[in-house]
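Ligand-bound model needed. phosphoenolpyruvate.
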Amino acid sequence: MRRKLAAGNWKMNGLTAQLAEAEALVQAHPAPGVDMLLCPPATLLAPMVERAKGTPLAVGGQDCHKAGSGAHTGDISAPMLADSGASHVILGHSERRADHGERNEDVRAKANAALSAGLTCVICCGESEAERDASNTLDIIGGQLSGSVPDGVTGHNLVVAYEPIWAIGTGRTPTLNQIGEVHDFIRARLERRFGEGIGRSVRLLYGGSVKPDNAEEIFNVSNVDGALVGGASLKASDFSAIITALEGARNQG
Ligand code: PEP
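Prediction:
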């Protein structure tokens, strides 16, 4: 059975004082029935890892370079993330794809670097509103999966997040049927490429305006194994309510 995962993406938010929210989260969930992950900005990785020691909170980066080291000013490598104590890294987020021109092959190269460093990759995919309106959603997701996900992954080192671009930070979400259709499709694609055993063991997260008041219904959709949460992960009380909803989800994978 897949263990559910609640992952928070703080994006470019959070100064040192924000670490109090991570501490409040672990106080609220000292022994959660799901996995908990927070991905703070790079400046907060090491101090968050320090505070998370001995707790069930895992800490991850939001991106990494495909090279292990070198002349890449401002970038951060996968071994650096691992060295800071991170266990996960988000890759191919739509904001990286849009703001930094990341293509599927870039995401795949970064994922290979992350795997080599022993990190678990949270690889994001998702369609734009125009692509959904043109009924191209599954084609887009299929292309992103085959282009971005490297060979040799397992249920331990790969998580896939479905994040419709038009739902991120907008307060809008797809219907439950639309979420289920895409998650079932991703599951089938992973099973076809990696075999049933691995394909069934990879956790699939939904992301895009998940909030305490819509989490429960989303978590009961088939093949939704958790969420990648942006805005609502910044406040421990909101993220905690989402974690509690995930713990209570009927969908057992
Ligand atoms: C995200 O950017 O990964 C995300 C899901 O953001 P939000 O929850 O704020 O829509």
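The mean pLDDT is 97.
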